[in-house]
Write a structure and sequence with these properties.
The protein is α/β, with parallel strands linked by helices. It is built from ten helices and twelve strands.
Length: about 325
């Protein structure tokens, strides 16, 4: 354990979604920095219910809240569950921010999403572009619910002096990602498809879309580091992009994962399925300027680590 000095020393930190993908990487980091961290399961506290959110805050009385809890998934999941995605995220965000205000939390960190950006945003996406249009349709219920958390945080700052920040994260990938085909994002889905195809000696895999869309991906350990730095050092209501600052087409991504997993078969593109947002790439200069965050893990290195981890658990 590191020396208990500075921001995190004996700080009571509540991490919602602490048992999820990003939480599994973030929680050990802040524990090592000397914080007392509280996590919980959905069965213990349902954040969509005011009474349970209130009980949670009364029990732990946190000084810092890092809000990671979401109902979300890949394009397929978002298309099938737009109503529950919107409602669940709106309710959770609304109540967690409100309880953070009521219980006088010293610092609230809301983790938002690149899905909040308009469908057609000039690349690279800059924070000032956030309100210049409607999000891509399949992601809109999720992206807009997160966007309302930003509005709530900023308006609470204005009226109550609430110290809340909002981070716009790109798609993450890495160990402990969701590899369930019903809910997973593109990288874990592709890794699983390739690894299973090799095991089962399949000659082809099917991939959604045309391959023309582009995405930006951030290794989860880098994302956790960004949240740590922002929590420590950033105290402005204006939102901040968190990403790796590069884009790759889905076709090039598929080619790379095929190469790294060793799959030798054919890739079939199912063009009846949607591409989602045409392009995604963030301008990440603000995060570096404001709190010194810059992604360290190269994409190929991060993919290799993720593939190795998945092969061990598959």
């Amino acid at each position: 354990m590191k020396n208990k000095i500075g921001f995190w020393s004996d700080k009571k930190v509540l991490v919602t979604g602490g048992n999820g993908f990003l939480g599994k990487h973030l929680v050990p980091k802040i524990k090592d920095l000397g914080a007392e961290v509280f996590t919980f399961s959905r069965q213990e506290y349902d954040l969509r219910k005011e009474s349970e959110a209130k009980q949670l805050f009364e029990k732990f009385m946190p000084q810092v809240v890092i809000h990671l809890a979401v109902n979300g998934g890949g394009i397929g999941y978002m298309r099938e569950h737009p109503g529950s995605v919107f409602y669940d995220n709106m309710m959770m965000n609304l109540l967690v921010v409100e309880m953070s205000r009521v219980y006088k939390v010293e610092k609230f960190v809301g983790v938002g999403t690149v899905c909040s950006y308009p469908k057609y945003t000039p690349v690279p996406f800059r924070e000032d572009d956030l309100w210049n249009g409607y999000p891509e349709e399949t992601n809109a219920p999720y992206g807009l619910a997160k966007k309302m958390m930003l509005v709530q945080t900023q308006s609470y700052n204005q009226e109550f002096g609430f110290n809340g920040i909002h981070l716009l994260l790109v798609n993450m990938y890495g160990p402990y990602d969701d590899f369930n085909f019903n809910t997973s994002h593109v990288i874990p889905a592709l890794i699983r498809k390739c690894v299973e195809a090799i095991k089962e000696k399949k000659e082809e895999i099917v991939v959604w879309g045309t391959g023309k869309a582009s995405r930006e991906f951030l290794y989860v350990e880098d994302a956790a580091e960004a949240v740590v730095l922002a929590t420590e050092k950033y105290n402005k209501p204006a939102t901040v992009n968190i990403g790796a600052g590069f884009e790759i087409t889905i076709k090039d991504l598929v080619d790379l994962i095929v190469k790294l997993t060793g799959f030798k078969g054919k890739v079939i593109w199912d063009t009846t399925k949607p591409d989602g947002q045409p392009r995604r790439c963030l301008d990440t200069s603000k995060a570096e300027k404001e709190f010194g965050f810059k992604a360290k893990t190269t994409f190929e290195e991060g993919l290799k680590k993720t593939i190795e981890w998945y092969k061990k658990i598959a």
